Amino acid sequence: MHTNDQPSHQRTGAGRATKPGVKHISLALQGGGSHGAFTWGVMHRLISEPRIYIDGLSGTSAGGMNAAVFADGFLKGKRQGAIDALEAFWMGVSGLNTMPRVLPRGLPGLSDGWNVDSDPTFMWLDHATRMFAPLQLNPMRINPLSDLLTDLVDFENLRRHPQVKLFVTASNVRTCRSRLFRTPEISVEALLASACLPLLFEAVEIDGEYFWDGGYLGNPAIHPLIHECDSSDVVIVQVNPMNRPDVPISARDILNRINEMTFNSSLVREMEGFATITRLIESGELQNDRYTAVRFHEISAEAELADMGALSKMNTERPFLEHLHQLGYETADKWIAENFDRIGWESTLDLTERFG
Predict the structure, then answer these.
(1) How far apart are CA 351 and CA 12, in angstroms?
(2) Residue 234: strand pairing partners
(3) In Å, how far are 40, 212, 346 from 340, measured between CA atoms?
(4) This prediction's pTM
(5) Rounded CA separation 193/41 (Å)
(6) C-alpha count within 13 angstroms, C-beta hemisphere, residue 245
(7) Which of 129, 146, 167, 274 falls 20 to 30 Å from 223 in CA-CA distance?
């Protein structure tokens, strides 16, 4: 992240200071409930790598919270501050867990792994959200995430650092348009709006407008990373599976797949556009200084996350979050080992195959 006291070694781009041998990337962070702990692990590994510097962050829902907590932690304590902040946030999330354990979880041979789709408690919650409006389920409008974020993040200080490139997306309920909150606009309300699932929470009001989860219209937004950040390498941290081997049959699995497709649709549309522009630039058909080739990368564990089941996104038990963190850390570690030399030179993600 950009801070005023970043050491000056070489100057590139718009006056950016960069160390020799350090490669700059921007991160696009998807939302996905508690599966955002996978992104926590990915970010932990990336910021622990001294050869990588993160120029900008665009996030939605849990991805937006990861981004804001990370940026605030970085301002307070550089790389270690970001690492510590993310751990404090996710351990705080685990402390908010009020779901009683009914069936054993995460025990190979003794359970369905981390899948909680058959757990009576999670089944009840899933059923309740379809039968009752958020105000009926939560008449006191209690959102413990609000207190956790307020305690952890110094929003006033964050807003005073516009050089930190942070973007959080929410969906305007009335206009069906996405709202992009930039660093000077980031607040606890903006983060809650970005993560507002309409079956669980009332729409969040900001400046007279009402917002739901940003995943419906931008999960996450890619364009600000390209147009407002220095790095030409964008790493997408994918949480919602794009591909599933089987066609869903049960009502829950059908609804889950509908949600996955909906929450991936905005990303697919945006990336289809970038894929077209990239092909035209590489073929020489598009020769215009307004367009610059952008290198795209992806870090994901699609098969592993898909196997965890639809309701696992509501599971905030500490062992589960720690498992996701470890999965994210190891996945990012493998990605760095296999792709570091290609950063700054070429895409490691085939846009046409993935999104075209």
Answers:
(1) 27
(2) 26, 296
(3) 20, 37, 11
(4) 0.86
(5) 24
(6) 5
(7) 146
